[in-house]
Fold:
Amino acid sequence: MIVGPKYKIARRLGAAVFEKTQTQKYQLNLSKKERLGKVPMRPKTDFGRQLQEKQKARYTYLLTEKQFGKYVKEALEKKDAHGKERLYAKLELRLDNAVSRAGLRPTRLSARQVVSHGHICVNGKRVTIPSYQMKKGDIISVRPQSTSSSMFTDLLERTKTYTPPNWLKCDFSKMQAEVVGIPEVEKADNMFDLNAVLEYYSR
Structure:
């Protein structure tokens, strides 16, 4: 997915949706009013707010409109009150996201690259599909031939202070992680409103 100017997109959405914009450098480049959240904006309609939340979620996971829409459609197939939970779980359990959440790579983009280039295994078998859906009991690991790569040699140093989400059990010394639960949306530190996202697609 070609994203474009990350700083510009993040400012337009009013949220640091990219890892690049979650840094001190980005914050320093914001104006004082932007840092304090006091930039005057025109009132948004319900549609405008829903669209903005959808874009925040889509850019957070680096998905195309078609890919994101497919996840929403699958989440809404069952006519019940759990569409939000299903959507969040589908997004979080993508292999590229799980690799990033497990701390094996520092960003979703770099996680997608290592998956696509064949450096990651699921249950001992190499998987090169970033959208591969993980499930409880699956084990993510760095391919044995890739453990000496410069992309992973600093893993122990990088993860000294890192705490993975509670649905992942990580063993950084073995360069692997196990999915031990289902991601729970209420425990997530989200920058977007999934209810508004579903409202956008339910129009």
